[in-house]
Each structure stands twice: as C-alpha cells, then as structure tokens.
C-alpha cells in the first residue's frame, strides 16, 4: 500500500469519486487522500504538506492560469498533475510551462496512465528538489524575478536573512522594492542593457536596502532563465558592504595622505636646506628633497638608493671626523652637529653644517634624518672678518711698537726741559708739546687695549 499523501482539488464530487477509485486501485490508501473542492479551503504549509497534488483547472475562486502559481506558493516543491477535459488541453499545456509535472485527459485516462504519471512526477520532483535545495540552502543570497513584471518569483534562505523579510513578504514584492529611490534610475538602465541575448551578466557593486531601510552594497551577478514559464533572471547578491566601505575609507585615507604628502613635498621643495633620510646601518639614502641640487649639485634621484656618493665627496681632511660622529650616532643615538667641507658635483668646494638625529621609522627600523645647510657664504664672510682682524692686529702692533717708542722718548726728553727757565712764550710751547705727547701716548694705549680684546 502506497503511504504517500495525495491532495485532490476537484469541485465536482462525482468526479472525485472516480479519482478516488483510480487512486485506491493503483495502491493508495484512502485515509492518505485528502479532497477539497477549492484551493482557498486547503490548509497551508506547514500545517499540511501533501506528497503530490491532482488538480482540476476550473477551481472556484482561482483563474485557470493562476492555479499552478498559487499551488507553488502554498505548497513549494510539491509535484502537480493537472486533470483536464479534452476541451481544456490548451490551458493544460500552459500549466506545464508554469511548473506542472504532467496533465491527463479525463476522457481517455487509464489507471496505468495515472500510476505512471505520478511515479514520473515523484522522480522528476525529487531531482528538481535536489536542485531546489542547492538554491534554497545556498549560502549566497539568491532570488529570481520576472523580467516583464519585475515580480519576485523565488527567494532562498540566505536572501531572506540578508534583506530581513519573510518568504511571503519577499514574494509579494518587486525587484525595485529592495533598492533605494535614488538607485532606481541606474537599475532601469541596467535592465535595458541586460537582454535575454546575454545570459550571464556581472552587474558589479550596487546599493540595496533591507526591510529596516538600511542601505548596503552588494555585488550582483545575474543569469537569464525560464522559471515556471516566466522569462526571468536568477540573481546572486553577494554582501560586500564592509569591504566596499573599507575600500572607500582606504581611498579617502590614501587621498588624504596623498594631499598631505603633496603639501609636505611642496614645503620641502621650497626649503633651501637639504632635508634627507638614510638607513642607520648602511647609510643608504631613502629620501632627499630638491635642495640637494643647489647644495650638492645632484638631483634627488642621483642620490636616493646610494650611500657613497656624498661620503666620497667630503674633503679628505674632514672625512675621518664625519665618520667618527656617524659611528657615535649609531652607537649612542641622540643628535649630532657636523661641520665639514665637501666638493659638489661640479667640483666647487662648499662648507656644510649637518644637524642629524637617530630615530625609528613606523616599521621599527632605525634611520638617520638630517638637515644639511650650505654655510659656504657665511664661512667665507667669517674668513674675511678674520683677515681684517689680523690686519687690525698688525696695525695695533705697529702702533704699539713703532709709534709708541718715539712718543715715549719725546715724553722722556720733555721731562728734562724746565719751562720756568724760559721766557713765557717758549715755556707755553713746551707745556703744549708735553700735553699733546701725553694725549698721543694715551691714544696708542687705547688702540693697543682694543686690539688685545679682539685677540681674546
């Protein structure tokens, strides 16, 4: 005895008796056969789920072109066989396009025909249900919509979880309902380019919304298909909201960094001092600004990635001291100030002052950062000052030795002259000579004192 439950929808009681007789004859238990005269009266899943449905086309309250879709909604995955009269064969054929497994003409039906149709329906449905489970249980959100009406025809569990609707709510909606208002124009443009001629279509990242109004990014793939007789699109919507928003944040961050770097490059390129950075261990230069051309005679790209170009340009008499300070910086860290002479790329001798410090970059690697200042002009000015001071010292020496000697002798001789023994005119001249000579001696002493202060 076949224990499968059978739902028979037959508005005519006499006809039902004929169906019941056939079913019991081919092995079905009468207690497993349920009869309703209309679809409206049938209990809904999960309260009741038949194994197979036998239905007439003319059912009270439902148009014949709606009976199959209505049954699919009420009893998803259950095979349907249409029982039709010969004058109903055309609409019965259309039912096959809507997902019915088979149809039988009542005027010519045999028990063997009914048994064969039901067995084949079970087999086909089992295969279809296997594929259906691949759809329903797929971890990716999937749905199918009618290309003409945009009505949703099917939806899997992952899509229900993603969008927050019940299955009944989702299947009562259109594909436009899961999109924000501002995205509809773009969606209609996509629809215009997604024809049946192009089976597969990678739509890309678009914005959807869930039941609560939350908007989020999904990457949409669609494929043309026929579903229950409808030209349709099978859609997979991959939730990429977190990734897209992270990408947007990264893009914004990168743009901010780019602007800040451009600003820093502008500032550094406008400096007259050479700002540079090198690895602490190998002294390989990793950055230097454009001032390197004015100070060292080299373009930045001629120095970046190298360590010996500038070291080999240091004056031989100064190189040992520079290397000693670098070694001290590498060992003890902190900061150092270096003064040295260097030959530029053109061979010009320059005086350089370096302010350097040992730091760690964001990766933890030790680096040396430095500022190189061309002090050649200042140094040359200092040399000229020193030369002028030397001249002053020589003048002071001449004054103190070559002039002060005769003045001292004049002062000594003037002490021997007695003005009181002279007439008044000569006496006055001698006194004025002594005063003038004394003043000259004081002036020479002042000049010598000032020269000694410069010397100190």
Task: Walk me through the structure.
With 456 residues, the protein is an alpha/beta fold. The protein has four domains: 131 residues, Rossmann fold, CATH 3.40.50; 103 residues, PAS domain (Beta-Lactamase), CATH 3.30.450.20; 105 residues, 2-Layer Sandwich (Beta-Lactamase); 73 residues. Helices cover 46% and strands 23% of the residues. It has 14 helices and 15 strands. The strands form three sheets. A five-stranded parallel β-sheet has the order 2-1-3-4-5, with helices on both faces. Helix 3 links the parallel strand 4 and strand 5. Helix 13 runs antiparallel to helix 14. The protein is rod-shaped. 20% of the residues are buried. The mean pLDDT is 87.
Key descriptive features of the protein:
14 helices; Beta-Lactamase; five-stranded parallel beta sheet; five-stranded antiparallel beta sheet; single chain; 15 strands; Rossmann fold; 4 domains; rod-shaped
How is the secondary structure organized here?
Blueprint: E1 6-9, H1 13-25, E2 33-36, E3 52-56, H2 67-74, E4 80-84, H3 89-97, E5 102-105, H4 111-136, E6 141-146, E7 152-155, H5 157-163, H6 167-171, H7 184-193, E8 200-209, E9 215-227, E10 230-239, H8 241-269, E11 274-279, E12 285-288, H9 291-296, H10 300-303, H11 308-311, H12 316-332, E13 335-343, E14 349-360, E15 366-374, H13 376-416, H14 424-455
Parallel strand pairs: 1-2, 1-3, 3-4, 4-5
Antiparallel strand pairs: 6-7, 6-10, 8-9, 9-10, 11-12, 11-15, 13-14, 14-15
Helix pairs in contact: 13-14
């Amino acid at each position: 005895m076949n224990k499968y439950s059978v739902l028979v929808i037959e508005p005519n009681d006499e006809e039902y008796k004929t169906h019941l007789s056939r079913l019991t004859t081919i092995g079905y238990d009468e207690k497993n056969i349920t009869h309703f005269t209309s679809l409206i009266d049938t209990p809904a899943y999960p309260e009741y789920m038949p194994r197979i449905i036998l239905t007439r086309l003319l059912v009270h309250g439902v148009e014949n072109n709606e009976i199959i879709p209505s049954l699919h909604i009420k009893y998803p995955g259950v095979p349907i066989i249409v029982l039709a009269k010969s004058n109903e064969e055309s609409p019965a054929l259309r039912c096959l396009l809507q997902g019915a497994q088979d149809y039988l003409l009542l005027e010519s039906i045999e028990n063997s025909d009914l048994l064969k149709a039901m067995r084949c329906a079970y087999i086909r449905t089992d295969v279809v249900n296997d594929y259906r489970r691949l759809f329903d249980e797929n971890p990716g959100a999937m749905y199918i919509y009618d290309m003409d009406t945009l009505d949703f025809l099917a939806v899997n569990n992952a899509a229900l979880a993603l969008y927050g609707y019940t299955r009944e709510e989702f299947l009562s909606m259109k594909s436009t309902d899961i999109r924000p208002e501002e995205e509809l124009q773009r969606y209609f443009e996509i629809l215009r380019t997604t024809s049946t001629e192009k089976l597969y279509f990678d739509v890309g990242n678009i914005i959807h919304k869930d039941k609560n109004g939350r908007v989020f990014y999904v990457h949409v793939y669609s494929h043309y298909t026929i579903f229950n007789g409808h030209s349709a699109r099978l859609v997979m919507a991959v939730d990429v909201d977190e990734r897209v928003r992270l990408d947007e944040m990264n893009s914004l961050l990168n743009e901010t960094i780019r602007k800040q770097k451009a600003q820093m490059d502008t500032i550094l390129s406008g400096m007259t001092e050479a700002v540079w950075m090198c690895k602490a261990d190998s002294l390989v230069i990793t950055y230097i600004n454009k001032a390197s051309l004015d100070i060292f005679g080299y373009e930045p790209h001629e120095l970046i990635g190298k360590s010996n170009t500038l070291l080999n340009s240091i004056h031989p008499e100064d190189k040992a001291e520079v290397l000693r300070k670098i070694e001290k910086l590498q060992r003890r860290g902190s900061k150092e100030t270096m003064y040295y002479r260097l030959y530029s790329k053109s061979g010009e001798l320059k005086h350089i002052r370096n302010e350097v410090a040992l730091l760690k970059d964001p990766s933890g690697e030790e680096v040396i950062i430095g500022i190189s200042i061309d002090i050649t002009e200042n140094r040359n000015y200092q040399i000229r000052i020193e030369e002028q001071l030397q001249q002053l010292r020589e003048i002071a020496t001449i004054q103190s030795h070559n002039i002060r000697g005769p003045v001292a002798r004049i002062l000594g001789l003037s002490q021997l002259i007695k003005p009181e023994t002279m007439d008044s005119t000569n006496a006055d001249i001698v006194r004025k000579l002594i005063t003038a000579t004394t003043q000259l001696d004081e002036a020479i002493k002042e000049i010598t004192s000032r020269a000694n202060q410069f010397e100190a």
